[in-house]
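tool_call predict_complex ligand=adenosine monophosphate
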Amino acid sequence: MRPRYILIFGPPGAGKGTQGRRLAAKLGLAYVASGDLFRQQAEAGTELGKVAKQYMDRGLYVPDDITIRMVLERLREPDAARGAILDGFPRTLAQAEALEGALAEWGAGIDLVIYIKISEAEALRRTRGRWVCRNCQAVYNLETNPPRVAGFCDVCGGELYQRSDETPETLRRRFEVFAEQTLPLLEHYRQRGLLVEVDGERPIDQVFRELEAAVGRLVAG
Ligand code: AMP
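tool_result ok
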């Protein structure tokens, strides 16, 4: 079977990571999040990580050439041979074109685009309580999705930390950049009939059921 590629979009705090990981596990696809890849590089102190962190900490997008190279390399790894759920990539038109070019070469394409919508006020509230695993990047929220043991990851036992790009000012900037650069991309996918929009302000399980239904229609169709 040809590989499947599903994109997940949404503003900061929409739950892309939580939902994307679950969906990837259910479908047996790799979960690839460009933000996680950048944070891993930054944690490891690589050159790429140092450059990326300068943009991330200001709430700006990392330049396209760096981002595209990193994500396409990741998609060539063996665990992504059946396809991937892509979280946070593409975010610009140049990234979308590069992705489609690569997928076409691999005899594949974008199968579904999911947009998880939340308001800026809700994003602010959620990201205040957000903690991320240093090791596997799983995301927790002290109010809505707390870890079983405070400070440690349920999945791998790694230490949890708070992201350095989640101050109220950076979040505001990330919202603006999302509206300016990424919302137009969604229009492009809507016109091609690939877009499914879900209300991300509901509980995690409800949102996930809706995503499962959308993916089910894809598999059935
Ligand atoms: P995220 O974890 O998806 O919220 O991403 C965190 C930060 O990583 C963003 O605010 C950007 O600085 C950077 N980043 C992640 N994905 C991309 C991308 N596709 N293009 C440019 N920058 C990105």
